[in-house]
Design a protein that fits this description.
- The structure is a single chain.
- It is globular, with a radius of gyration of 31 Å.
- Strands 1-2 form a two-stranded antiparallel sheet.
- It has helices at residues 2-29, 33-37, 49-69, 75-80, 89-108, 117-120, 131-156, 161-190, 195-219, 229-252; strands at residues 123-124, 127-128.
- It is built from 10 helices and 2 strands, in the order ααααααββαααα.
- It is mainly alpha-helical.
Length: 253
């Protein structure tokens, strides 16, 4: 009985070996059609979860600002409130500046041609800056330096009290701009648009925003710019036009 079972196993293994050789020779000499014409149609979508995390964080910052810092103020009251009726202006300005820097970095980082080598080689706790990190660091440094120079400018001309009125008024402008930036970020990352062509439209948009901001500062009822015309001209040239050109050169040239 045992010898019969062993004989059957040997025959089965021999038959499997013969079948394997037949299939192997067939596959080697006659390529299968599927192996020649198969195309992988699986598309790996771009992972933009980091954009949602940043935008949701920005919205929560604004909610915190409106409910806690501005004491449950609604949007209309916040935008139309007068300087002498407002409180906690500095925290609101800081939060609005942070949201503006974040949203602008999210949008602009996609068009950065290359990260400078000395920045790419820099490591902090084993991490390197990507395009978003480089853009955010540049914009934060840009706005911080611009704000410090603006404060020193008002102090140097003997009009230091107007500085607080200036950043109170600028907060309203950048608050509205931040919401526009959030809409642009959502459109850019989650709608089927041509990103190469849209860059030109973004450029037109920011040129319009810059020109509007200059006139907003010049003709605002709070009179946030210095009274003398040459101080106004000096401020616009040195603290509005020149920093924008420098930021453009650092990021895109």
């Amino acid at each position: 009985m045992t010898s019969f079972f062993i004989s059957v196993c040997k025959d089965s293994l021999f038959n499997l070996f013969i079948l394997y050789k037949i299939i192997y020779n067939f596959a080697k000499n006659i390529p299968l059609l599927l192996s020649q014409n198969f195309i992988n149609h699986v598309r790996i979508p771009e992972n933009n979860d980091w954009v949602i995390f940043i935008l949701v964080g920005c919205i929560f910052l604004f909610i915190f600002m409106m409910n806690i810092i501005e004491r449950d103020a609604n949007l209309k009251d916040f935008l139309l409130q007068k300087y002498f009726d407002a409180s906690n202006n500095l925290p609101s300005w800081i939060i609005t500046s942070c949201v503006t820097a974040l949203t602008l970095s999210v949008l602009a980082s996609q068009y950065i041609p290359v990260i400078p080598k000395f920045v790419a080689d820099l490591q902090i706790l084993g991490y390197q800056l990507n395009k978003f990190g480089f853009t955010l660091a540049t914009i934060v440094f840009f706005y911080a330096t611009k704000s410090i120079l603006g404060f020193l400018f008002y102090q140097s001309i003997g009009d230091g009290k107007k500085w607080s009125i200036f950043y109170f008024t600028a907060t309203k402008f950048y608050f509205v701009l931040s919401f526009l930036m959030i809409i642009l970020c959502i459109t850019h990352y989650y709608f089927p648009i041509d990103r190469n062509k849209s860059f030109l439209y973004y450029l037109y948009f920011f040129c319009f925003v810059f020109i509007f901001k200059v006139f907003f500062y010049l003709f605002h009822r709070n009179n946030i710019l210095p009274e003398k015309w040459y101080y106004k001209f000096l401020y616009i040239c040195t603290l509005q036009i020149a920093p924008i050109l420098l930021l453009w050169k650092v990021l895109f040239l």
